[in-house]
Request: fold
Amino acid sequence: MVPSISRRHLVQGGCTAALVALAGCLGGDGDGTDGSPGNGGGNGSDDSGGNGTDDGGGNENGGDGNGEASVRPYPEYVATDDAGEATAIYADFVAIEAVSDEFDDLISDSEDPLLLLPARGTNLLLNSSLSLEGLGLGELLDSGETQLESEVQAVTLASQAFVAMGSLQTGEIETVLRSAAGQLGSFEQSAERGPYTFYQPAGDETTTVALSGTDILVADSAGPVERATAAATGSRTRAADAVDGFGWVLDAVDDPDVAFAGHASPSEDGTDNSTGALSGSSSFIATHTFDSDRVTAEVAAVYPSADALDGATGSLEATLGSEADDVSFEFDTDRVSVTGTYQAGADTGGE
Reply:
């Protein structure tokens, strides 16, 4: 089962404090030529590159095109763009569905960046999920009345490609795509690559969809989808392998329920990278892991140098975990890990 629309706003409320704008850390996919903001082009023409780390075209998680598969780990979809940047945002719908309503106020009333950073990522992810509405497939993300047999267990934003992962009946989804049920009109099959069938609108729209038995990917144009599917099948080097610091932060947190990770070169003055205490980092991850009555929030970050981290240490210690029941820091040369726990229903002290 996937959560209802109201449940999917669980952590969105935590973004209302507007304390953690993440401009400059979103791994933009180019100069607009592929339908994405950013600076550094990319039309997907290089997506057959890389050093192939898997099967080069199959799904190692066992998809057979009929929904019999497990969810692929979210970092496997993420490749760097032409500017060398990347974003990975992930939410486990099954885990979020199971948590208490008391987490709503805990997050929305907070002013603690350690708790709010993952919520900010989820807000961006939820906004991106609207792309399924344009395909006529919004039901995939709603646990209410649905005629679809396909189920989504988790979602990912792999830079600019939205990915819904689960057990998908490819036949019924293709029927919806061809039926013009969504506002983008009908879609036609355009290519097949490994386990994926690609679709594009019959009209002038540039939206691109890739579908397999384990996932459906959508973006405003072909480039982001081709990057994500090439990374997933191992025919393009994944960002975790291409960038040591990004790989380290992704490995720093084991099996989170919500994750927001990014890699980008920080500006010299930090003006376009307003992540607060993380403004000087080059790679970061912020996560939530939910238990029945508490949430564990973790941050891991890599800085360009030991000096850069030294300059940020005071701000990190003063802000991250300021409202946690318990918080710990671990510093090592150019990188830091922070873990805080928060009790559901507790008064965080925020306004």
Summary: Residues 7-41+55-233 form one domain. The CA atoms of residues 215 and 232 lie 10 Å apart. Residues 113-129 form the longest helix (17 residues). DSSP finds nine helices and twelve strands in the chain.
